[in-house]
Amino acid sequence: MLLPCQISVDTDSCRVTYRGEIVDLYPKQYQLLLLFLKNPKYILSYDFIIDRLWDMDHIPTYSSIRTHIKGIRKAFKKVKYSEDIIENVYGMGYRLNPAINNTSQEHNSPIPSVSSFQNLLSVKGIEYLVIDDQFIIQYLSPNLIYYCDYPQHLQVGVYVGNPFPELIGLKEVFYEMRKKEDKTFTIKGIARACRPKRPEYINLYVITDEDQDIGDSGKQMVLVFFEDASEQMIYSNCQGC
Predict the structure, then answer these.
(1) What distance in Å separates the CA atoms of residue 66 and residue 43, rounded to the nearest whole number?
(2) What per-residue confidence (pLDDT) applies to 29?
(3) How would DSSP label each residue in 2-47?
């Protein structure tokens, strides 16, 4: 199997090479890589991966799968493949790096870009921010300011509790989430002060991601999504009248 980017897979010998150099993979890592190569257009969830590669008597934890994926990335980095060959898609799963197929005639279907996902979130009334394990804001979406009590404090590099006091208690929730396989937390129907362009109610979704680190610091990322729930909450309240 010859791929773009000078990656080659010999399925008879179960050997992967990059620019002629052997990529040293464990058997399960090889199987996992092959699964992504056979499904280059799709985002693969943990459950999909488990169903395809493990039997019911030896079901791995999600953490174990993340470890295998990290191992594949490290193996390719050793042979100087600069990109992460397998990408994380927050809250959804993993996909083969689109760059693998950019020059491929066999796999020419477009893969949605990050900006496409951002536009979709915006249309759905969802804004978000990314914080590290010290709860310092690393990234925020452009219109998040309309969801914020203290917009003057909303910027990258500040403690998330400054612009969002309601998230100060997030630390305890986050530490509890890290102990479990369930990496999501949801609060719905949070009432907000009435201000122009600001939702009266929001839903809050928190997702931890042990796989995606910020740079080389090893800090775990947390994604916090803010959804405009005003319409559904107002309708629900009217139904209860």
Answers:
(1) 15
(2) 95
(3) B-STTEEEETTTTEEEETTEEE---HHHHHHHHHHHH-TTSPBPHH
Give the H/E segment covering residue 128.
strand 126-131
In the chain, where the domains are located: 7-101, 112-239
Instruction: Give the CATH fold of the 7-101 domain.
Output: Arc Repressor Mutant, subunit A (1.10.10)
Sheet of 137-140: strand order equals 137-140, 126-131, 220-228, 201-213, 184-191
pLDDT (tens digit per residue) in 98-148: 877 654 444 444 444 555 555 555 556 788 888 887 888 888 887 888 888
Q: Are 225 and 185 in contact (CB under 8 A)?
A: no
In sign, the C-alpha dihedral spanning 187, 94, 143, 148 is: positive
Would 7-101 and 112-239 be classified into the same CATH topology? no
Residue 49 confidence (pLDDT): 92
Indicate the residue type of 37: L
pTM of the model: 0.48
Give burial (CB, 10 Å; 0-12/13-18/19+) of 64. Answer: middle
Q: Are strands 137-140 and 93-96 parallel, antiparallel or unpaired?
A: unpaired
* CATH architecture of the domain covering 112-239: 2-Layer Sandwich (3.30)
